[in-house]
Amino acid sequence: MTEPGSDRTQPLPVPPTPWAHPQQPAPAGTEQPVPAPRRRTPLAVTAVAATALMAAGAVGVGAVVVTTADDLVAALAPLPALGADGDTATDGSADGSPDDSSDSTDGSSDDPGTTDATGASAAADGVDWGEVAEQVQPSVVAITVQSADGSGGQGSGVVLDEAGHVLTNNHVVATSSGGVEVSVTLVDGRVLAADVVGLDPSTDLAVLQVLDAPDDLVPVELGSSDDVQVGDPVMAVGNPLGLAGTVTTGIVSALDRPVTTQSVGVSSGEPVVTDAVQTDAAVNPGNSGGALVDAQGRLVGINSSIAGLGSGAGGQSGSIGLGFAIPVDSAAAVAEQLIEDGTAEHARLGVYLDDATAEVVDGPWAGERLGAGLAQVEPGSAAAQAGLQAGDVVVAVEGRPTTSAVSLTARVRALQPGQTVDVVVERDGEALEVPVTVEAAEA
């Protein structure tokens, strides 16, 4: 595999596994069937957007993968160094229309503003989730994509500003060209037309512009990725199965979880690798592009994918408590670029990677560790200028463990070109801390 931006024709050096995004599927008859899970692959991943596309992906050794009706494939590499359980993630795409979910038991309904966190359960963790929902729901929209042939789907989005910019997943609106119409529905039921401002398949993010934006739009309050901790209470807000304004609650289950999904709208099929926030808040088809917020109602992530148990041939799975979101700092940085230029720059090291094991003799990184091996360093690249060498094994970036090639790729993609980070590598049994200034990947 190559670090993003080096040689995108190179395959990821890991066995493929099927995954998907949480995206509401196209109308019945237009979606692709979900393949039966492979033996010994108990979890499946699906996207929560609203369009149907199909591809294959790959992940780190030991990861689990599953395909979904969204025709997207996602994969997740485990992070044993962080002690996290479960190696899969999915958005829970479904093959039915919103009407197919009428027998839902989560307490949600078709009415805007529905919440499944009520009464004693809402206050069990000391958070007034009703108040948080009232604050956040006006900032989250349902997105509908409709093509000329009648096919389409639904997803979610987050209002960024009073000008009407809406942040969502690329896979929700990536087909919104050539006769495809996009509209957003506010929590009060108003339906507004929207145009696509910019798409960034590399991060699975997109920005829409609401046309003739009303003056009472409520922008979401942005949080900070640095403030998010494992165990923090969070709420997911979105449009699962067409049930606009639905909220679900949980905690942050893990941070820095490397999740791989197949990009949409890129002929090369370059995978999306995200250093994701993992949550056990229920995320289902249609949640893609929606908000993950903290107990103060601040945005901490954009819900993008989930893992679920396969439900047999032709069936789909919903949330089993393994959801994944793009961290807010990464999402906001890309959104700002898309609004300004319609495109976004990405960081690269200029290396070819393999999964590897490092043996550090002494010091704070002593012992046997999983890492990302540098199989090759491009001459003149950011890695070369920093003094990194082929044979080095990266075990940490900015003090956070890096346990695989996919893990390092995700970490680099979360950086901005020109940013300097401390990289810990094992070389000849010694742990070296090397400052590296990442460069911009070629467009």
Automatic annotation (TrEMBL):
Domain of life of the native organism: Bacteria
Glycosyltransferase found in the keyword field: no
UniProt entry keywords in alphabetical sequence: Hydrolase, Membrane, Protease, Transmembrane, Transmembrane helix
EC numbers on record: 3.4.21.-
InterPro entries per the UniProt record, alphabetical: Chloro_Bact_Ser_Proteases (IPR051201), PDZ (IPR001478), PDZ_sf (IPR036034), Peptidase_S1_PA (IPR009003), Peptidase_S1_PA_chymotrypsin (IPR043504), Peptidase_S1C (IPR001940)
Region (Disordered): 1-39, 82-122
Record-linked SUPFAM superfamilies: PDZ domain-like (SSF50156), Trypsin-like serine proteases (SSF50494)
GO molecular-function term, one example from the UniProt record: peptidase activity
Entry's Gene Ontology BP terms: proteolysis
Enzyme class: hydrolase
Bias (Low complexity): 82-96, 104-122
Pfam families from the UniProt entry: PDZ_2 (PF13180), Trypsin_2 (PF13365)
Annotated PDZ domain residues: 333-429
Transmembrane segments: 43-66
Family label: Belongs to the peptidase S1C family.
Name the UniProt record assigns to this protein: S1C family serine protease
UniProt organism field: Aquipuribacter hungaricus
